[in-house]
Specification:
By secondary structure, the chain is α/β, with parallel strands linked by helices. The chain folds into three domains: 68 residues, Elongation Factor Tu (Ef-tu), domain 3; 274 residues, 3-Layer(aba) Sandwich (Rossmann fold); 123 residues, Lysin (Up-down Bundle). 39% of the residues lie in helices and 18% in strands. The protein is built from 16 helices and 16 strands. Strands 8-12-11-13-14-10-15-16 form an eight-stranded mixed β-sheet, sandwiched between helices. A six-stranded antiparallel β-barrel has the order 1-2-5-4-3-6. A two-stranded antiparallel ribbon has the order 7-9. α5 packs across α6, α7 runs parallel beside α8 and α14 packs across α15. The chain is elongated, with a radius of gyration of 29 Å. It catalyses: ATP + H2O + 4 H(+)(in) = ADP + phosphate + 5 H(+)(out). It is an enzyme of class 7 (translocase).
Length: 501
């Protein structure tokens, strides 16, 4: 075989000429310890807070502790195959989730990945889950109502678009039911809803999705689920993921509603993470920044002014109390962050008053400005009369011989309680709420037996829609009860109540 040196030289030269160096610089670290979903990594000097890190097998984790030589990270997947000495590389990006219309009607996990078996979500945009809340300049005061369809709330504790209203109560008092009813009531409005389930049973979340689907509410709803069986880091990021999805719609000039169910379990998940990361514990073993955990989340709910799109994000966080103790650490934190609270009582719930709202300690600090004029006019004294009735009721147990005035006030109070009762998944239109509250406040129900108040209410709605559609239409469209319509309403109520008796 004849080897020619010039040929060999030519081949070598052409190879050298065509050679392209493919050097990729990666910032890597080494796993020092792993366990309980926490990884301690040596290296990664330029790592950012909340940055996504990737293992060789593709599993990811999130950096939460940045120390001098080490990084403490929490797993976002299984740590079963991670071992000491494994290489970890930076991704250069923080945790982000898909946002947009494509998510409507879907059930996703805390990372925005679909878990409902309906195929991939082809979102056009992703956004980081952490974002600084809108500033003072970008906001405007809350002035448009968010109708829940629940009489007790819309009349006495009204919620406005862009408000943060806490729903607080013991377990099994109907907190989630109020949230779901509020979502269902948005069917005829343009409000986009996001329901975030944190640390709940998977069966409970499935039940919520079933209820929303049956009511036709999933078309405008996104469900973000981080169930009790999922890792604590996923439960920790779930509310921020949901909030980011809601902010997308707010910035597009739309109105969105987000429900966090519930932030007690969120705080517990964060406490578990913090203790495993060896952060110093404080009161009730929660870390020192547990207030900031919730304040930075709830401050992102806002009502933007027209220069910034004019959208809104209304937040309804839920807190579960232990034996009605609202002065515990997490409840007091969230009460101080929010613009009011709806307090649900176990005693009321078991005595058949549902929704079990206690109007005495429930308050809405900004929603009153957003209430429609008709409702404001008729429900002005409702909360006061209800509270006075509860006080009278407790005193009247001691004495049997009551004067006529007290008996009348007790009878009126009983009828107020009766008309504020409401079944689940049966929201009441605002015009009907105005009519029934006007009727009870102005004593049109005084001769109706207590057990027939529910039937009277149902028949009254039907009668008003058939015989006086002009009154209901006027309240619905103009949102005021004009003197002319008030006179018509008085005549209609007088006529109907007399015939009913």
């Amino acid at each position: 075989m004849d080897l020619r040196p010039d040929e060999i030289t030519g081949i070598i030269k052409s190879r050298i000429k065509d050679y392209g160096s493919k050097i990729r610089l990666e910032d890597t670290g080494t796993v020092v310890t792993v366990g309980d979903g926490i990884v301690r990594i040596h290296g990664l000097e330029k790592c950012m807070m909340n940055e996504l890190l990737e293992f060789e097998n593709g599993v990811r984790c999130m950096a939460l502790n940045l120390e001098q030589d080490f990084v403490g990270a929490v797993m976002l997947g299984s740590d079963a195959e991670i071992k000491e000495g494994d290489t970890v590389k930076r991704t250069g990006s923080v945790v982000s989730v898909p946002v947009g219309e494509e998510l409507l009607g879907r059930v996703v996990n805390a990372l925005g990945q679909p878990i409902d078996g309906k195929g991939a979500i082809l979102a056009k945009e992703t956004r980081p889950i952490e974002k600084i809340a809108p500033g003072i300049i970008t906001r405007k005061s809350v002035n448009v109502p968010l109708q829940t369809g629940i009489k007790a709330i819309d009349s006495m504790i009204p919620i406005g678009r862009g408000q943060r209203e806490l729903i607080i109560g013991d377990r099994q008092t109907g907190k989630t039911a109020i949230a779901i009813d509020t979502i269902i009531n948005q069917k005829k409005t343009d409000v986009i809803c996001i329901y975030v389930a944190i640390g709940q049973k998977a069966s409970t979340v499935a039940n919520v999705v079933e209820q929303l689907t049956a009511a036709g509410a999933m078309d405008y709803t996104i469900v973000v689920s981080a169930t009790a069986s999922e890792l604590a880091p996923l439960q920790y990021i779930a509310p921020y993921s949901g909030c980011t999805m809601g902010e997308y719609f707010m910035e597009k000039g739309k109105d969105a509603l987000i429900i966090y169910d519930d932030l007690s379990k969120h705080a517990v998940a964060y406490r578990a993470l913090s203790l495993l990361l060896k952060r110093p514990p404080g009161r009730e073993a929660y870390p020192g920044d547990v207030f900031y955990l919730h304040s930075r989340l709830l401050e992102r709910a806002a009502n933007l002014n027209e220069n910034y799109g004019g959208g809104s994000l209304t937040a309804l966080p839920i807190i579960e109390t232990q034996a009605g103790d609202v002065s515990a650490y997490i409840p007091t934190n969230v009460i101080s962050i929010t613009d009011g609270q709806i307090f649900l009582e176990t005693e009321l719930f078991h005595s058949g008053v549902r929704p079990a709202v206690n109007p005495g300690i429930s308050v809405s600090r900004v929603g009153g400005n957003a209430q429609i004029k008709a409702m404001k006019k008729v429900s002005g004294t409702l909360k006061l009369e209800y509270s006075q009735f509860r006080e009278l009721q407790s005193f009247s147990q001691f004495g049997s011989d009551l004067d006529k005035d007290t008996k009348e006030r007790l009878a009126k109070g009983e009828r107020i309680v009766e008309i504020l009762k409401q079944g689940q998944n049966s929201p009441v239109a605002v015009e009907n709420q105005v009519i029934i509250i006007y009727a009870v406040i102005n004593n049109y129900l005084k001769d109706i037996p207590l057990e027939k108040v529910g039937d009277f209410e149902r028949d009254l709605y039907k009668h008003m829609e058939e015989a006086h559609p002009d009154i209901t239409a006027s309240i619905r469209e103009e949102k005021v009860l004009t003197p002319d319509n008030e006179e018509k309403l008085k005549a209609a109520l007088k006529d109907f109540s007399e015939k009913y008796v």
